[in-house]
Write a structure and sequence with these properties.
6-stranded parallel β-sheet; 28 helices; alpha/beta
Length: 1026
């Protein structure tokens, strides 16, 4: 076989290996690998250096399989060839020349493959160059590190001149090396594909991020536009507010024109609505701006994370280099550290020595200071000794002087003892004279009491006598007939019982009873015996107008010659200091409740001259020891128990009243209890009168609760009895009282008409209409003993209708007390005293505060609210005007302050939504304050507009309005202030007129007296008292 030569041109076209099968005599076969990474070179592949080592790491991560070592094999094979002798035999290799045709085919194949590689390379150029170029450089550099052309050429030992031949072993090694190279190139291609996939993924993520950034930029632009719009709207709102303020000032100065004021008010409301909508838009824009800002922050965070990821690799590389440097420095640092520790230890030893020396020096210094202080003390003691020696003579002289003074004092003491003894004797003599004089005065007092006209004795005196008789009866010390006879004598103000009481009041109870029984007779009387059973009585237990009615009506009836008694619960929170001669009776009254008998302790005393019985239940639930009058969850049981106990007291004491008058739902149980349970037992002398002071409160409860007091639930839970209109399993005490009472009243004629409608009756209108013959409205009066400006002890100066000077003094005093301005004495003062509940028109009261201020007046409010949100609202207004010169809110109730406000106010506002009667307007007029009231209930029966020509002039006494809105209130308030400012003399006459009106209970008591008498007469004339 001829010697053949391998041309290096095969390598330049991508030939990397061949196989040779000697036994078959076949020609050598060359393998072309489809890789464009082998760059053509004659001796060594040239490559650009300067690629990024980080990218090489990425490539290695993409191809986890190891690269086979090729360079070492090639080097070892070339060494072996150099050591062998040159064999130029013809059978070493088959001739290549005979294979020229095949070689041409191989060249053509190589050329076509190379073209395809170039096409692939061109197509890849279209990808992003920045990262793709790096990938190409990394791949080429990796191949150059694994296989280089000079190494292959050396292994093949190809040259133009020599005819070097290959052995079988060398061919095998060369084939292994070529196969390993093929595998390595394939793996590198796989790494390149994975790198391209990662690149495309990164590009897609970048495009997605760019899309998000574009959307956020659009949102930012929209937000900027909205912010600009909001700023423009804010400027517009500020302009509108300025215009609103100007309009307010203009409205104050504009002359009276109702139409113009209404138009301005509507425009003002429109501006307020626009202002609120603009504020809402601004808040919406602010919230959207916050969301955009949050999105911007997220984008910034993403960008920071991206930049951090990009820089992390560089940081790792830098840290690697630094760590290598640090490793080299570590040994030197250790050496330096050991040297430093040695120095530190030596310094520590020196420091310890210095510290010991300093401590010794401090001790020496302290010892020196102690010695110095001792020396100073010794010097001071020497000085004191010298001074003592000098003063000893003076002390001796001083002692002699003191002894002389003691002798003088002893002499004076002896004289004073003698004087004191004489004074004691004189004092004893004066005491004897005083006792003698006292005895003479007692005798004269008894004679005067006997001679004094009994009609002039106060009702408080007769009430004490009456309670004394009742106590003896309950304690079973006298009989019922004797008690009735004694009551009749008290009732008639018989002089005999008066004289007997004067004689025995200092004697024992047994002697007193014997003396009284000697007076027993059976006179007759024209008066009525009236017992009020109520939950309130002023002033001992007062929540609202009910307490005033019980006390005021009771005293008025008493003045008209009727015997009046009151029965109340004994609350733990009532004003005991207003009860005179309060004492417990030595007896108990048992009453039925919840299937058992419970004891009740009975207390008696006088209140405002009226005899009062207080019932204290000995029930485990402690019904009236709760710290408040109403508002407990078991109020239904509390007051049904009290109603039955009150009737039991009347039954067991043997009383025979003509009228039992019960009030509101708390004692409405009395009516059905009386007719169903107690009339059959013998308590059948009375007629029942029921007064509902406010139909808003009806005390409904579950029907089963009614059985606790002994009433028959099955008989009473019917539509024609006590069943409530709202539900078939609930009972209504007020409805039961209307049906079972002989007389039904309410507190004003207008309110009596209002409650007979579906709106005002609160479900009882049909019951009231069916019982209309016994239903009537009587206007309440006021207690003129408590509410009289001529005798009021709470006032700075008393006054009356003929002398109004005191009103100005009270106005000045109240302004000073509350810190209001007194610069303008004629500035009108508007007062308001009320409970802040919806019934009283709280929205109109709030409006009146601001409107009065706008009209140039002053406003004072006294009152509180049981409704939390109303109380909080007015607390805010109170803080707003806390230091204002013309407005003051006092969110409490103060008895003394209420009298001062009535006396100081020029006008009083009562804008109630509904008002059964109302005492405020009557009290205000009694104190010369003109009422501004809404026409409803008792207000309509007591306040008449001075501008209403249909009302006679003599009855015109205030300013009224019909509709419960701000326009109606403005109409009345503005007219009142205009009248006050324009004509002072006319206003004074109006004050005199309203103060002359009689709002006492005299007129109301006369009407009740007529009702009582007519009902009692009808019952006595009828054989069947039902």
């Amino acid at each position: 076989m001829t010697t053949t030569k391998l041309s290096s041109c095969f390598l330049t076209n991508g030939l990397v290996g061949f196989s040779y099968k000697r036994e078959h005599g076949t020609s050598p076969r060359f393998f072309y690998l489809p890789s464009r990474r082998l760059l053509p070179a004659s001796c060594k592949i040239r490559q650009p250096r300067g690629f990024d080592s980080n990218k090489r790491q990425d490539i290695k991560k993409g191809s986890p399989e190891p690269i086979l070592p090729i360079n070492s094999s090639l080097q070892s094979n070339s060494d072996e060839e150099d050591s062998q002798p040159d064999n130029g035999s013809a059978d070493s290799f088959p001739s290549l020349e005979s294979e020229t045709g095949k070689g041409n085919n191989i060249h053509s194949t190589l050329e076509s493959t190379e073209k395809r590689g170039e096409d692939v390379q061109k197509s890849e150029v279209t990808r992003p160059k920045n990262k793709l170029t790096k990938k190409k450089e990394e791949s080429v550099h990796a191949i150059a590190d694994i296989l280089t052309v000079p190494e292959v050429a050396k292994a093949l030992s190809i040259n133009e001149s020599g005819g070097e031949q290959f052995s079988d072993g060398k061919f095998g090694e060369l084939m292994t090396m070529i196969r390993n190279a093929e595998k390595n190139i394939l793996r590198l291609d796989q790494a390149r594909v994975s790198a391209l996939a990662e690149l495309s993924k990164i590009l897609s993520e970048k495009e997605a991020l760019q899309g998000e950034i574009n959307v956020l930029e659009m949102k930012m632009a929209e937000t900027d536009e909205r912010i600009k719009t909001a700023a423009q709207e804010k400027v517009r709102v500020e302009l509108l507010e300025e215009q609103l303020e100007k309009l307010r000032h203009e409205m104050v100065s504009i002359p009276e024109s109702d139409g113009y004021v209404l138009a301005l008010s509507k425009e003002l409301e429109t501006l307020k609505i626009e202002n609120m909508s603009l504020r809402n838009d601004i808040e919406t824009l602010k919230s959207k701006l916050r969301s955009v800002e949050n999105t911007d922050e997220r984008v910034i965070v993403l960008e920071k994370e991206c930049s951090g990821l990009e820089s992390s690799v560089k940081d790792l590389e830098t840290k690697l280099l630094v760590s290598q440097e640090d490793v080299s420095k570590l040994s030197s640092l250790k050496t330096e550290c050991s040297d430093l520790w040695t120095k530190v230890e030596s310094l520590q030893m020196l420091l310890d020595r210095a510290t010991k020396q300093a401590e010794q020096a401090v001790l020496v210094l302290q010892q020196n200071q102690d010695l110095k202080s001792k020396v100073e003390k010794i010097e001071e003691s020497l000085k004191e000794a010298n001074v003592y020696k000098e003063s000893s003579e003076k002390i001796q002289q001083y002692n002699e002087l003191m002894q002389h003074k003691v002798q003088l004092l002893e002499e004076r003491l002896e004289k004073s003892d003698a004087e004191i003894f004489s004074y004691v004797q004189l004092y004893q003599e004066s005491i004897k004279e005083f006792q003698d004089t006292l005895e003479r005065l007692k005798e004269e007092s008894k004679r005067k009491e006997r001679d004094e006209p009994v009609d002039d004795m106060p009702w408080d005196y007769w009430s004490r006598l009456l309670l004394t008789v009742d106590g003896w009866l309950l304690e079973k010390k006298i009989g019922s007939d004797d008690a009735d006879s004694l009551r009749e004598m008290v009732w008639k103000k018989d002089r005999r019982i008066h004289d007997t009481y004067i004689d025995v009041k200092d004697k024992s109870e047994r002697d007193a009873i014997s003396a009284f029984l000697k007076l027993v007779s059976s006179p007759t009387s024209q008066g009525l015996y009236v017992v009020h059973i109520a939950a309130e009585m002023a002033p001992v237990a007062k929540v609202g107008g009910l307490g005033d009615v019980v006390a005021g009506l009771g005293k008025a009836l008493q003045r008209r010659g009727h015997l009046v008694e009151i029965i109340l619960p004994k609350y733990d929170c009532m004003q005991y200091d207003r009860v005179r001669d309060l004492r417990a009776l030595d007896t108990v009254v048992e009453s039925y409740f919840d299937g058992k008998l419970y004891k009740n302790k009975i207390w008696i005393g006088t209140v405002e001259g009226l005899p009062v019985h207080f019932i204290e239940p000995q029930h485990p639930s402690k019904f009236f020891w709760r710290g408040q009058f109403y508002g407990e969850k078991d109020d239904f049981k509390r007051f049904s128990y009290f109603s039955r106990a009150a009737l039991e007291l009347l039954l067991q004491s043997g009383k025979k009243p003509d009228i039992i008058h019960c009030h509101d739902w708390q004692t409405a149980f009395v009516a059905p209890l009386y007719w169903d349970l107690y009339a059959p037992k013998g308590l059948d002398s009375a007629r029942i009168c029921f007064t509902c002071h406010n139909f808003e409160y009806q005390g409904t409860s579950s029907a089963s609760d009614l059985g606790s007091c002994g009433l028959d639930v099955n008989q009473l839970n019917r539509p024609d009895r006590m069943q409530d209109h709202s539900s078939g399993d609930r009972v209504n005490p007020v409805k039961g009282a209307i049906i079972f009472s002989n007389i039904v009243t309410t507190v004003s004629p207008t309110y009596a008409q209002e409650v007979r409608t579906s709106e005002g009756g609160k479900g009882l209108h049909s019951t009231l209409n069916s019982n209309s013959k016994k239903f009537i409205g009587i206007l309440n009066g006021i207690d003129t003993d408590s509410w009289n400006p001529a005798t009021d002890p709470f006032l700075k100066a008393q006054f009356n209708a003929k002398d109004l000077q005191g009103k100005e003094e009270n106005k000045y005093a109240l302004r000073k007390q509350l810190g209001l301005s007194s610069a303008e004495s004629r500035r009108p003062l508007v007062g308001c005293i009320t409970r802040l509940v919806p019934q009283k028109g709280v929205h109109l009261i709030r409006h009146a505060i601001y409107r009065t201020l706008e009209l140039g007046g002053q406003f004072v409010l006294l009152g509180s609210s049981p409704v939390p949100h109303i109380q909080r609202e007015f607390e805010g207004i109170e803080q707003q005007f806390k230091t204002h010169d013309h407005v003051r809110l006092l969110l409490k109730y103060d008895e003394a302050l209420s009298h001062s406000i009535y006396a100081a106010s020029d006008m009083f506002i009562i804008p109630s939504i509904f008002e059964p009667c109302g005492l405020t307007q009557m009290i205000a007029m009694s104190y010369g304050s003109i009422p501004i009231a809404r026409k409803t209930g008792g207000l309509n029966d007591s306040v008449f507009d001075i501008d209403d020509d249909t009302i006679p002039t003599q009855f015109q006494n205030g300013f009224t309005f019909q509709t419960a809105d701000e326009q109606g209130l403005n109409y009345a308030l503005e007219r009142a202030l205009n009248h006050y400012k324009k004509d002072e003399e006319k206003w004074m006459r109006l004050m005199e007129k309203v103060m002359s009106i009689d709002f006492s209970w005299a007129s109301s008591a006369t009407q009740y007296e007529e009702l009582y008498t007519r009902s009692v007469s009808r019952a006595r004339a009828s054989p069947n008292r039902t």
